[in-house]
Specification:
Strand content: under 5%
Strand order of the largest sheet: 1-4
Structural class: mainly alpha
Shape: globular
CATH class: Mainly Alpha
Number of strands: 4
CATH architecture: Orthogonal Bundle
Number of helices: 12
Radius of gyration: 19 Å
CATH topology: ABC transporter involved in vitamin B12 uptake, BtuC
Length: about 290
């Protein structure tokens, strides 16, 4: 029983990280139709921004306080990068989807190369608060505390994004602009500015995912964002392209399947199980590749 509980909690924690990585990707595609392969660069930038912040802050500060500041900096860095990428690279290509893919793939490769050139290819260790490194005993199972943090942050992000889309004027403009951009612009509303804000929000979510994933991995590296992006794409496709709630459910399923398969089958089988799950979903529900509402 304790082993099963441990697997469930660790699987949920991993799924929470996958949702953090996939939420911005799903938001940008669902509302703007942009398949952003540079999303991994946003996550890598957030991870390095967090690492640099924690390193540069006075060591006399508690690690938890430095991590909190690092999270804020990572979110801001991700938002700024997302905004700049949308304005400079994506905006001129909204009606050219192939060019969008090529540009974002090129940016992804350039971002990894830049990180390697500046900080080297070797992983850099990051500090973790003592409480997050510890465990809590529940029903005989020693559960890692950091998983609870990831789950809580993912739930807050999901609730915040859904509330933004459903109960705010910005969310109304976003959804209306997706349905009929011409009509919204005829009412004097700047839809382009709204879409830029959406891209910045997606970048901020990616920065958050990057800094928290570095805590999970215990290090930052240039290819970290790209590795996480693979699972983010799998989650987005399984959950339905552009559906935030579907993405959240898919992230939980993928995290649990991966953990359970690795434990009950063999190490590494979890990754294969996730790929097989993706193939099964595409065979049974090809509409996953089409856009869906949040």
């Amino acid at each position: 029983m304790s082993d099963l509980l441990l697997l469930l909690v660790t699987g949920l924690g991993l799924g929470a990280l996958y949702f953090l990585a996939a939420s911005g990707l799903s938001l940008i595609y669902g509302l703007m139709g942009v398949l952003n392969f540079a999303h991994g660069v946003f996550m890598t930038a957030g991870a390095y921004a967090g690492w640099l912040t924690m390193s540069d802050l006075p060591q006399s500060l508690p690690i938890g306080a430095r991590l909190a500041v690092a999270v804020v900096v990572a979110v801001l860095v991700g938002a700024v990068i997302g905004l700049v990428v949308e304005v400079v690279l994506i905006r001129p290509l909204y009606h050219h989807h192939i060019q969008q893919v090529l540009v974002t793939v090129g940016l992804s490769l350039a971002g990894v190369a830049a990180a390697q050139g500046i900080w080297g290819a070797d992983p850099r260790p990051v500090e973790t608060p003592a409480w997050m490194s510890g465990t809590t005993v529940i029903l005989g199972a020693r559960l890692p505390n950091d998983r609870f943090v990831y789950i809580a942050v993912a739930l807050m992000l999901l609730a915040g994004l859904l509330a933004l889309l459903r109960y705010t004027r910005l969310g109304l403009v976003i959804r209306a602009g997706v349905e009929n951009r011409t009509m919204v612009e005829a009412l004097g509303i700047d839809v382009q500015r709204t879409f830029t804000i959406v891209f910045a929000i997606g970048g901020a979510a990616a920065g958050l995912a990057g800094v928290l994933y570095s805590q999970y991995a215990g290090a930052v590296s240039p290819g970290q964002g790209g590795s996480l992006l693979i699972y983010a794409f799998i989650v987005v496709v399984i959950g339905g392209m552009g559906s935030l709630t579907g993405t959240a459910v898919a992230a939980v399923v993928v995290g649990l399947v991966q953990q359970l398969a690795n434990y009950y089958a063999a190490s590494g089988v979890g990754d294969l199980s996730v790929v097989l799950l993706l193939a099964l979903v595409l065979l049974l529900r090809p509409s996953s590749l089409k856009g869906a509402s949040a």
